[in-house]
Design goal:
The chain is of the alpha+beta class and 261 residues long. The chain is 23% helix and 32% strand.
Length: 261
């Protein structure tokens, strides 16, 4: 009887985690480049009362065993890396990656390399493209102060038009980093991811080659959170939580009956 109380308690714990993940997804529904997550659960160990295939009477074998589980737990949160919708911003410094890959950025102190799908860039006082948190787009280049326009081709080639000039001047090429296992990246916050052993080493390549996506200038990638899907998941998690709480209530009532004998 006590076992059922603790089993239902683990069920309530995992559903609470489920609600936490769903809430985080909904909170970031308007975050550029955000990828929604889902929790992964597994059953806990089993107590084997009778092993399947153990000897039975008259030299027979037991066809099925007797195993009692002890509940469930959360083992991981999996990031779903589907592409979000594109939003037109009419800002020449905004960029979105159509396909696989991440923008490579460098921390303001130059010590840490991060990766992001948030292409909402701005020009700093030195003409460099930066995120809103100050992380610098890599490879780094400077847009001159007298530039009348700035353009980025689908293959990442960046150019600007000098004042009074007829032909554009090429600044360099924006590259894209791809990973064997992008779900293994470590989410740092601030729309940034960091490399881990699980993600594998980044493969820096030109946009549109070796499986990397192409760049769209003047757009940002929106979050891939589906509000309807998250609300349905929330209802399911809520009902599962209620069922586990009802199991605790039922176990308590059975214990109450036992004490009244």
């Amino acid at each position: 009887m006590i076992r059922s109380l603790w089993i239902a308690k683990t069920g309530m714990d995992v559903q609470q985690t489920n609600i936490d993940v769903i809430s985080h997804n909904l909170a970031n529904i308007n975050t550029n480049g955000y990828k929604h997550s889902r929790p992964v659960f597994e059953d806990l160990i089993y107590q084997t009362i009778r092993q399947a295939g153990s000897p039975a009477a008259q030299q027979g074998q037991v066809p099925t065993g007797l195993q009692l589980g002890v509940g469930a737990r959360t083992v991981a949160t999996t990031r779903i890396d589907t592409e979000g919708g594109f939003q037109n911003t009419n800002n020449s410094y905004d960029m979105a990656i159509s396909g696989q890959g991440y923008f490579r950025v460098l921390s303001p102190d130059g010590q840490t390399t991060g990766y992001t799908r948030d292409g909402s860039f701005r020009r700093d006082s030195q003409g460099r493209l930066t995120m809103s948190n100050g992380w610098l787009l890599q490879p780094q280049f400077q847009i001159p102060q007298d530039a009348t326009s700035f353009s980025v081709a689908a293959d990442g080639t960046a150019s600007y038009m000098p004042a009074g000039a007829v032909n554009a001047v090429q600044l360099g090429r924006i590259t894209v980093a791809t990973f064997v296992n992008p779900a293994g990246l470590n989410a740092k916050g601030e729309n940034l991811y960091l490399e881990t052993e699980a993600s594998g080493a980044p493969q820096e390549t030109d946009p549109g080659s070796n499986g990397a996506g192409t760049i769209y200038q003047g757009y940002v990638e929106a979050s891939n959170v589906n509000a309807t899907e998250e609300l349905v998941n929330m209802i399911q998690a809520q009902r599962a939580y209620e069922l586990n709480s009802r199991a605790i209530q039922t176990s308590d009532q059975m214990l109450q009956k036992l004490t009244q004998l």
